[in-house]
UniProtKB/TrEMBL annotation:
Protein name: KIN12C protein
UniProt-listed SUPFAM superfamilies: P-loop containing nucleoside triphosphate hydrolases (SSF52540)
GO terms (BP aspect): microtubule-based movement
Superkingdom classification of source: Eukaryota
Organism whose genome encodes this protein: Symbiodinium necroappetens
Originating gene: KIN12C
GO MF annotation: an example: microtubule binding
Domain Kinesin motor: residue ranges: 1-157
Short name of any one Pfam family annotated for the protein: Kinesin
UniProt xrefs under InterPro entries: Kinesin-like_fam, Kinesin_motor_dom, Kinesin_motor_dom_sf, P-loop_NTPase
Similarity comment: Belongs to the TRAFAC class myosin-kinesin ATPase superfamily. Kinesin family.
Cited SMART domains: KISc
GO CC, any one term: kinesin complex
Residues that span the membrane, as ranges: none
Length: 351
């Protein structure tokens, strides 16, 4: 420390203490009737040798006036008004601490009190550290309990969880933006591909279809229907095959339900044939209707269908979107775990 600086600071502290209002109450013969704040502002000069930037440090030394039950301890009207102002600033500080400790993104009322506005950077500033020393009076159990509870709420700011929760919330918001942006990119590319698709093709690529199994009918697929015991080729199958339309797999089973008489012919037989040979799985495929038309559902043997892969660029964007969603869900789970642990910690402190 520079020569004479300690002496200068000491003189300032004594000068401030002399200007402080002290009075006698029913509770304390020398009660502090005002808060006292001493701020030491140190500016560090940049180092030309290391190209380091200049920094600054602020040290706040605060002596809080005691929280009092004014109706019990005030001896006149002036002390009653002083006690109301003291309790108001301490109450605001408590609400600020509570809002920060809960880490729920709620409004922090710094401006409701000159004390909290002055100390805002000391409470939540970059690399801020705050400590509270609570003075108790064993002869007054009610005041001692109130003071300890107030100090406990303040100490929650020094908990690892209380600082971790706001950080996790910020990370969740950032990941949410990234996931939303990735989804928008997928939607935009899907729309572009759909607009440029050939007539007759299914031009309905979307996040839903990208996550589903997409298939189309093989050439000469009707030949595989001829001896199938459960399914048969229909005119609708023939139309979908000629248009090379693409559908989404809805169901795969060994034996499909029997089609009821009078129902629409979707490829299932009304009366199943007997077959001793191994029969491949049966697949129900939905073809999305266009221009307001209803979707069509048809049954196929598994070996009649071939999988259709989306464009490589679309697959890459989908993978990036899924990675962003997975990172978001993981961070949300971490946030919920931290909130649960912090709630348990606060319960232990206040019980």
């Amino acid at each position: 420390m520079f020569p004479g600086l300690a002496l200068q600071i000491s003189e300032w502290l004594l000068e401030g203490a002399a200007a402080r209002i002290v009075g006698r109450t029913a509770f304390n013969p020398r009660s502090s009737r005002s808060h006292a704040v001493a701020t030491i502002h140190v500016c560090w000069q940049p180092d030309p040798a290391t190209s380091a930037k200049g920094r600054e440090t602020r040290l706040h030394i605060v002596d809080l006036a005691g929280s009092e039950r004014s109706g019990q301890y005030a001896i006149d009207g002036e002390q009653l008004r002083e006690g109301a102002h003291i309790n108001l600033s301490l109450s605001t500080l408590g609400r600020v601490v509570g809002a920060l400790a809960r880490g729920q993104g709620e409004h922090v009322p710094y401006r409701d009190s000159s004390l909290t506005w002055l100390l805002s950077d000391a409470i939540t500033g970059c690399h801020a550290r705050a400590f509270m020393i609570a003075t108790v009076q064993p002869e007054h159990a009610a005041e001692t309990l109130s003071t300890l509870r107030y100090a406990q709420a303040y100490s929650s700011l020094q908990s690892d969880l209380s600082t971790k929760i706001p950080r996790l919330r910020a990370q969740v918001r950032s990941l949410l933006c990234q996931a939303d942006m990735a989804q928008r990119e997928v939607d935009m590319l899907c729309s572009l591909i759909n607009d440029n698709a050939r007539i007759g093709k299914m031009n309905q690529w979307s996040r839903e279809t990208l996550k589903s199994r997409v298939v189309q009918i093989r050439r000469h697929g009707e030949e595989l229907f001829r001896l199938h015991p459960y399914l048969k080729w229909t005119d609708v199958h023939d139309t979908k095959a000629k248009l090379a339309q693409i559908g989404l797999v809805e169901e795969v089973c060994a034996v499909p339900p029997v089609r009821e008489a009078g129902s629409a012919n979707d490829g299932r037989r009304i009366h199943f044939r007997e077959s001793s040979a191994n029969v491949c799985a049966c697949v129900r495929v939905v073809f999305t209707g266009k221009h307001g038309h209803q979707s069509t559902r048809l049954w196929f043997p598994e070996d009649v269908l071939e999988d259709v892969s989306p464009p490589a660029q679309l697959q890459e964007l989908l993978r990036e979107s899924e990675k962003a969603d997975a990172a978001l869900q993981q961070k949300v789970a971490q946030l919920k775990t931290a909130q649960k642990a912090f709630a348990s910690q606060m319960q232990q402190w206040t019980s």
